[in-house]
Amino acid sequence: MRIGNTIYLDHQATTPVDPNVMKTMLPYFTETFGNPHSSEHALGWTASQAVENAQIEVATLICAEPDEIIFTSGATESNNLALLGLARNSQKLYRNRLIVGGIEHKCLIELGRILSSYYHYEVEFVPVDKGGVVQLDQLEALLDENVLLISIMAVNNEIGTIQPLNEIGVLAKKYGAYFHCDAAQAPCAVDIDVIAMNIDLLSLSGHKIYGPKGIGSLYVKREIQREIEPIIYGGGQQNNLRSGTVPVPLCVGLGTACSILNQPMKYTERTRLAQLRDKFVSDIIALGRDISLNGPSLQTRHSGNANICFNGYSAQDILQALQPFVAASSGSACSSGITEPSYVLRAIGLTLEDAASSIRFSLGRFTTVDDVDSAVRIIKNVLSRL
């Protein structure tokens, strides 16, 4: 897709709001604007029903129940509520260890530090292979009856690695540990079934799935909701887990984004996107320079992800030279604007130099063949100049 003169290839940073999502949201800003917690008049009832419908759509996407969906401001808050909420109020006081994936989102890495420093949990990171996949034998070697929680993201936001959630869920259940999954990047790439996968807590984000920014959700398995301590206190909304007035238009937007992904056409879109991504990677590598793909094979990663190493170049130099014609990134957009070699790429074995030469291109729902062809031509010209 193009925004003015810019070809947008940074969908794993954020996606545009789907027009159908925007259409369903608009009335809740201007017409049906009631407070969903106002229980004494029709406008409040209508708003409350809209929120409940959105819960149903989100729950359907991950095979959960509507009352297990808690709306938040996004996946970062959801991750915080999951880990801090559980660790601060755990009824299993003898379980003082947490296992976190080695290439998790920045907020999970930071949460590990907080839980270790302030709550005295022992936090350990499970290593990954060169494709970014968690090593199940090494994960099991870390597990015992003292582990409270395993937190592994479903799909990596930088290299597109899809984790073996079924197998991780089996291990968590075997050792009696809770299983949290940051699934912000997952819905556009894989199907999630929290029951089949033994997932107890799961985080989602609206703006990663063509919904609005500022909204996300946390699935909390009904049986453990009383074990979660809120991190936002107030009127006790949302099962006393997340107080505050629920933003109806944003909830509706998230629900609609999920309903689109609940349709069978999602499989056709994943196939289309993977074919387009494969063409992009092939054309870039064919430029004849020392260019390679980072992370897992094209067949086993997020269908829109291409993390590419331009050996001998500076990723920052390339990205600057591409402006304003191609939008891509050197890694996660969630590190306060910090530009430094990706810890994810370092974790899968890249040298500091190769990590600093790597760019994440992420294609999306509205990317076209013409976008890909034009982007490759622009990148070729930039490499020639640099």
Question: Could you give the topology of this structure?
Answer:
Elements: E1 2-3, E2 6-8, H1 19-25, H2 27-30, H3 42-62, E3 69-72, H4 75-88, E4 97-101, H5 106-117, E5 122-126, H6 136-142, E6 147-151, H7 165-174, E7 178-182, E8 201-205, E9 216-220, H8 248-261, H9 265-285, E10 291-293, E11 305-310, H10 315-322, E12 326-327, H11 343-347, H12 352-355, E13 358-362, H13 369-385
Summarize the structure.
The chain has 386 residues and is an alpha/beta fold. Helices cover 37% and strands 14% of the residues.
What features would you describe in this structure?
- The chain has about 375 residues and is of the alpha/beta class.
- The protein folds into two domains: about 140 residues, Aspartate Aminotransferase, domain 1 (Alpha-Beta Complex); about 240 residues, Type I PLP-dependent aspartate aminotransferase-like (Major domain) (Aspartate Aminotransferase, domain 2, 3-Layer(aba) Sandwich).
- Helices cover about 35% and strands about 15% of the residues.
- It is built from 13 helices and 13 strands.
- The strands form three sheets. It has a seven-stranded mixed sheet with strand order 3-9-8-7-6-4-5, with helices on both faces.
- Strand 1 and strand 2 form a beta hairpin.
- It is globular, with a radius of gyration of 21 Å.
- The two termini are about 25 Å apart.
- The relative contact order is 0.17.
